[in-house]
Amino acid sequence: MSNVEVAIRRSPGLLANLMLFGTMITLGRVQEVFVFLWPLRLVLVMFLIMGISLLMKGGTSRYRLNMLWLSPTFRKFVLFVGIMIASVAFSVYGSKSLGFLKEFILYCGIFLLALNCQVDRREDLNYVIGGAVLTLIVLGLICFLHPRVVGGRVAANWTYDPNDTALLFVMILALVLPAMKHVKPLYKWALRSAAVLGLGAIVLTQSRGGLVALVGTVTVWALSHGVKGVVRLAMFGGLALMLVLAFAPPGKLSRFTSMVNLEDDYNMTAKHGRIEVWKNGLELFQKNMLTGTGLSTFIVAEGQTHSGGKWSEAHNAFIEIGAELGIFGLAAFLAMLFSAWRRAAPKDENDWLGKGIRLSLTAYVFGGMFLSWGYIFVLYFVLFIAMVRERVLALEPAQAPVMADSPPVSRSAAQAESVRAAPRRRYKMKERK
Question: Percentage helix, strand, coil, to 5, in the chain?
Answer without folding.
Answer: 70, 5, 25
